[in-house]
């Protein structure tokens, strides 16, 4: 059976961000930004291994505690993303049919739902695919002096995201010339072989933290959302169904099931609830404005 391995290239420094510390290690809610990225990948039951590729000279990774059994680190990062992925793939020595999901370290707001959608839609694809968002805004081409040169039709345009999911053998072949500047992501390398990867609908929140203001947006998105609900019903008995109710609420809200609390009670046979004519629910939610 083919394995599914998530590979996170984290050897860059984030020059556009402009911080002394590489952006993947910047603090975000008491953890390095990278920790939030890894939490989603390591929390997915359909991913067998999660591998972080860092620079051989990395001074930060070992300063943190990474509490995930399936997490591994490879110190083979290169001068570019493509080289880091190629080096990591070579070090893993995977079977050609194994799946590799390459995910940006700085895309720390990936939701479990989007990740699962990619896995489900690509698992039987002959080529592989990526998460992506259709372009919604009007696109302008600019001049070197900051003037509009042209308006680009947005029909058919997509913004590439990650993870990008391809068979290890095909991706290894595509990255043989990883130093080629045309290769800006795994999909572009696959395209150079003449293939057309599948586009899987992503989410706007799965953006890449690139500029300082992006960190504030990521902070807002990753704020803990808690739901505390009470179900008042004379019948049926709710205890056997609590886990499935919590899981369904979490899936609908796209939050972790640990952030959902559900309690059940009767109305002591009083009123319309006590006569089992209706079921009432009450919920308190912690919402974070964006």
TrEMBL record:
Keyword flag Membrane: no
Key words, A-Z: Nucleotidyltransferase, Transferase
PANTHER family per the UniProt record, alphabetical: 2-C-METHYL-D-ERYTHRITOL 4-PHOSPHATE CYTIDYLYLTRANSFERASE, CHLOROPLASTIC
Protein name per its UniProtKB record: 2-C-methyl-D-erythritol 4-phosphate cytidylyltransferase, chloroplastic
A Pfam cross-reference name: IspD
Single GO MF descriptor: 2-C-methyl-D-erythritol 2,4-cyclodiphosphate synthase activity
UniProt similarity note: Belongs to the IspD/TarI cytidylyltransferase family. IspD subfamily.
GO biological process, one term: terpenoid biosynthetic process
InterPro entries assigned: IspD, IspD/TarI, IspD/TarI_cytidylyltransf_bact, MECDP_synthase_sf, Nucleotide-diphossugar_trans
């Amino acid at each position: 059976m083919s394995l599914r391995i998530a590979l996170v290239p984290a050897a860059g420094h984030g020059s556009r961000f402009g911080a002394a510390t590489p952006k993947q290690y910047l603090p975000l809610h008491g953890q390095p930004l990278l920790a939030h990225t890894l939490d989603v990948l390591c929390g997915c039951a359909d991913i067998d291994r999660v591998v972080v590729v860092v620079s051989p000279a990395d001074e930060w990774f070992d300063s943190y505690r990474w509490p995930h059994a399936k997490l591994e680190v490879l110190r083979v990062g290169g001068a570019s993303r493509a080289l880091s992925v190629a080096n990591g793939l070579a070090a893993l020595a995977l079977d050609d049919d194994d799946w590799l999901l390459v995910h940006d370290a700085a895309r720390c707001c990936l939701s479990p739902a989007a990740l699962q959608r990619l896995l489900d839609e690509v698992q039987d694809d002959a080529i592989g695919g990526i998460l992506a968002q259709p372009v919604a805004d009007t696109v302008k081409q600019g001049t070197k002096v900051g003037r509009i040169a042209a308006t680009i039709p947005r029909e058919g345009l997509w913004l590439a995201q990650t993870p990008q999911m391809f068979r290890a053998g095909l991706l290894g072949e595509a990255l043989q010339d990883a130093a080629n500047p045309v290769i800006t992501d795994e999909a572009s390398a696959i395209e150079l072989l003449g293939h057309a990867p599948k586009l899987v609908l992503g989410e706007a929140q799965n953006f890449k933290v690139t500029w300082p203001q992006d960190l504030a947006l990521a902070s807002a998105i990753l704020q803990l959302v808690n739901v505390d609900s009470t179900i008042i019903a004379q019948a049926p008995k709710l205890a056997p169904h609590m886990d499935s109710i919590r899981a369904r609420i979490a899936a609908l809200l796209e939050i972790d099931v640990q952030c959902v609390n559900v309690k059940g009670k009767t109305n002591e046979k009083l009123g319309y609830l006590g006569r089992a004519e209706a079921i009432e629910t009450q919920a308190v939610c912690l919402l974070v404005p964006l």
